[in-house]
């Protein structure tokens, strides 16, 4: 028994002195120009301001962009005919309009006598989020996602390398096809899609203009082309483009933390995420002794902030894992969320378990970085995330030949 007591005493002494034994890693302090250069060096580039620049990112030989395709895709995105009961469209769950009159499905659900929803949609109906803001996706016949996965936003989605929580879909066109046919989403087969569209003379004409005929594959391509135009720009983009006044000092401090703490290791690229599959959480704090770092603002480096003994039962996530989803191959591997407009796409994490952005930042700091972020640091990072809020760019689409 004495042996174990000595071991615990040794661990305590070690943990209380480790911050003095290890050298402090110096963190960079950035000027506006240095901050911009540091972000750009991580490929955290701004989104395209013009249609010509957009084409450089999204145009592919498999689905060449054209005005006719985009116009057709916009119509199909809002077309309820593409669902089994003709009552929902892509836009039902991936909300783009800020007009409350166009959100009857949510207003009816929230004002129903049997409503028990406490999701973020209750207060954020007017946000242009590209998602429904429910904890779990709801589709055909009110069916909920079997794994309690929430709806990913369509805004900027075409710029991501992965389209699902476990990363098994890589292109926006493939995801469109899967969503239409999924029994829990729109529940309509490829043949039924073709039959309905071929029976509509207006759509037949539009398909002939954009392609050569009506087909399920061309339906996917048309919606995909439209989705590639749903790109947002914000103050963050203007800052990256050279406008030092586009974001405030607090947001700049948050961006500095974002780069210094290591957030940019996963949340990178033009979408600030969505480019890789990573394990979550990296640190589950299920060991006998839990150790957490913090960032010392004066010393400009990490130090051990606290430790604790853990007697809790093992749990793979820092929140209730409703739906039991464990990511790719059941190994807690998830698509890194895109952070553009993240303040408008709550609730957070794969099952919508966290409703507040500040809590999400705290959990990411602790469980991904192994850091205990201060209230001030969290506020500054959240301010940076607010600078990622943007509206969909109204691209001036030019007509070009497409195949």
Structure description:
The chain has 403 residues and is mainly α. The protein has 14 helices and 6 strands. It has helices spanning 2-21, 32-41, 51-58, 67-77, 90-93, 104-111, 172-181, 190-198, 201-210, 216-227, 235-240, 249-261, 357-368, 375-386; strands spanning 232-234, 277-279, 289-296, 301-309, 333-335, 390-392. The strands form 3 sheets. It has a two-stranded antiparallel ribbon. The protein has a two-stranded antiparallel ribbon with strand order 2-5. Strands 3-4 form a two-stranded antiparallel sheet. β3 and β4 form a beta hairpin. α12 (249-261) packs across α14 (375-386) and α13 packs across α14. The longest helix has 20 residues, at 2-21. The protein is globular and about 65 Å long. 40% of the residues are buried. Residues 18-26 and 110-115 have low confidence and may be disordered.
Keywords for this entry:
403 residues; two-stranded antiparallel ribbon; mainly alpha; 36% helix; single chain
Task: Give a short overview.
The chain is mostly helical. 36% of the residues lie in helices and 7% in strands.
- Flag low-confidence runs: 18-26, 110-115
Anisotropy-based shape: globular
What composes the largest sheet?
2 strands, antiparallel
Helical residues, percent: 25-40%
Number of helices: 14
Q: What is the average of the pLDDT values?
A: 85
Proportion of beta-strand residues: 5-15%
* Gyration radius, in Å: 24 Å
Structural class label: mainly alpha
Q: Identify the strand order in the major beta sheet.
A: 1-6
Termini separation: 77 Å
Topology order in helix (H) and strand (E) letters: HHHHHHHHHHEHHEEEEHHE
- Compute the number of strand runs: 6
């Amino acid at each position: 028994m004495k042996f174990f007591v000595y071991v615990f005493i040794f661990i305590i002494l070690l943990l209380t002195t480790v911050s003095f034994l290890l050298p402090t890693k110096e963190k960079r302090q950035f000027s506006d120009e240095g901050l911009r250069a540091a972000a750009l060096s991580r490929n955290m580039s701004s989104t395209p301001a013009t249609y010509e620049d957009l084409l450089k990112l999204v145009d592919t030989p498999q689905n060449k962009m054209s005005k006719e395709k985009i116009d057709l895709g916009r119509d199909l995105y809002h077309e309820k005919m593409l669902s089994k009961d003709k009552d929902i469209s892509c836009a039902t769950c991936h909300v783009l309009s800020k007009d409350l009159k166009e959100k009857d499905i949510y207003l009816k659900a929230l004002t129903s006598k049997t409503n028990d929803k406490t999701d973020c949609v209750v207060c954020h109906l007017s946000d242009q989020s590209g998602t429904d803001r429910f904890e779990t996706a709801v589709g055909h016949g009110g069916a909920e996602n079997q794994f309690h996965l929430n709806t990913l936003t369509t805004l900027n989605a075409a710029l991501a390398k992965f389209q699902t929580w476990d990363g098994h879909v890589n292109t926006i066109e493939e995801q469109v096809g899967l969503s239409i046919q999924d029994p829990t989403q729109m529940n309509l087969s490829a043949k039924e899609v073709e039959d309905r569209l071929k029976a509509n003379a207006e759509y037949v004409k539009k398909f002939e203009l954009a392609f050569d005929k009506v087909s399920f594959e061309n339906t996917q391509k048309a919606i995909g082309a439209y989705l590639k135009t749903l790109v947002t720009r914000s103050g963050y983009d203007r800052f990256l483009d050279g406008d030092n006044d586009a974001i405030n000092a607090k947001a700049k401090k948050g961006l500095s933390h974002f780069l210094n703490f290591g957030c940019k290791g996963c949340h990178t690229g033009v979408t600030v995420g969505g480019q890789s599959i990573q394990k979550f959480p990296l640190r589950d704090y299920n060991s006998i002794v839990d150790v957490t770092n913090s960032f010392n603002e004066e010393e400009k480096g990490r130090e051990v902030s606290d430790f604790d003994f853990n007697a809790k039962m093992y749990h793979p996530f820092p929140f209730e894992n409703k739906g039991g989803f464990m990511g790719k191959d059941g190994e807690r591997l998830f698509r890194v969320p895109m952070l553009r407009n993240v303040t408008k796409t709550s609730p957070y994490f794969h099952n919508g378990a966290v409703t507040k952005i500040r809590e999400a930042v705290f959990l990411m700091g602790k469980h991904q970085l192994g850091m205990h972020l201060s209230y001030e640091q969290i506020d500054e990072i959240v301010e940076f995330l607010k600078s990622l809020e943007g509206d969909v760019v109204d691209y001036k689409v030019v007509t070009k030949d497409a195949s």
